[in-house]
Amino acid sequence: MQSRRIISIVFIAFILSAQHSHAQNDKETRPEAWALIGGSRGGYFVKSILEVQKGLGGMQRVSLSHAERINVDSFSVLITRNDNSIYNFRNKGAYFEKSVHDMLERLQLGDKVLFFDIYATGLNKKIILLSPLECMIK
Length: 138
Known about the structure:
This protein is of the alpha+beta class. The chain is built from 3 helices and 8 strands. The chain has 2 domains: 1-30; 31-137, no CATH class. Helices cover 30% and strands 42% of the residues. Strand 3 and strand 4 form a beta hairpin. The radius of gyration is 21 Å and the shape is globular. Mean pLDDT is 86; it is low at 18-28.
């Protein structure tokens, strides 16, 4: 009876240790803040979906299971076609300025849109740099 109790305690300790280790690994691999376009962190987009977006959004992690919206202050946009840069612009604010919106309407199959140097105001009111977003037109 005593040996079963010891085995149970060791097993519970092992499970708790594994959960703590898993939570630490999640925290290390999950970003604390990130940018979004159309609810996505980038990837493949149909042109019609990308061109109707109004701008970039941001999220900041509050806990392992919860994040809050944050305001994007500025970002840069680079559009490439056939590995050649066709557009480069620094946008102020979260919403696309007219020239960015105009270029998104002219995207073609295979174009790549990179949003980088994305700055946002975090929940603590400090300016933070968000990871870049890459969108490919399919």
